[in-house]
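Tokens for chain A. Residues wanted.
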């Protein structure tokens, strides 16, 4: 892929993340579940990435590179993925769709820069005993992924940041490969790993 095209798409991805965080900051109570986060992200991505760059022709097919619930590791699907147009244009449809291929083929394709970006999200409605485990599971999914850019977005309406002291060390441990943004609506606090990667979005 030409560097400028990759950079342009990646700018759109981070802009979509910023817009979604800002929307949650403005009205966290309008987010009932994680699908609301996914919907906002998907909508901003589709509006920011020009259609001629989003829709890519392959070998006898044409697909949108922005994919919700995209098959990833054997454990899970990625909440949102942006495919590499160069991969889409030369790979067989079965490998682009990734529904009927084995884990070894998926890993091989990911190592060939199949994925530009992968986003995992978590909306904490009511913190429980498994909340930290679920967040760490999403972090583990991302660390195993071979996408060029990986993001973990955690949102909470209640002040729960201090409930999970062990997570900060894990986030810092992996901050070179996974960018994390955690916003708590109740205390209006945004924590980022690495620090300040989520700059104000362009209007």
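Reply:
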């Amino acid at each position: 892929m030409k560097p400028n095209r990759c950079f342009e798409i990646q700018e759109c991805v981070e802009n979509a993340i910023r817009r979604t965080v800002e929307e949650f900051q403005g009205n966290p109570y309008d987010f009932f579940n994680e699908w609301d986060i996914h919907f906002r992200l998907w909508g901003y991505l589709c509006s920011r990435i020009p259609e001629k760059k989003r829709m890519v022709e392959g070998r006898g097919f044409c697909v949108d590179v922005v994919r919700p619930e995209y098959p990833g590791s054997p454990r899970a699907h990625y909440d949102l993925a942006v495919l590499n147009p160069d991969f889409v244009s030369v790979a067989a449809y079965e490998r682009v769709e990734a529904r009927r291929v084995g884990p070894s083929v998926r890993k091989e394709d990911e190592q060939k820069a199949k994925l530009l970006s992968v986003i995992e999200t978590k909306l904490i409605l009511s913190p429980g005993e498994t909340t930290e485990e679920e967040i760490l599971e999403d972090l583990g999914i991302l660390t195993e992924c071979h996408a060029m850019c990986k993001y973990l977005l955690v949102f909470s309406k209640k002040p729960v940041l201090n409930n999970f002291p062990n997570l900060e060390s894990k986030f810092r441990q992996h901050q070179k490969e996974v960018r994390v943004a955690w916003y708590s609506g109740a205390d209006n606090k945004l924590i980022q790993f690495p620090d300040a990667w989520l700059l104000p979005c362009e209007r």
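The first strand starts at residue 55 and ends at 57. The helical segments are 3-26, 34-48, 51-54, 85-90, 93-97, 103-111, 131-144, 165-173.
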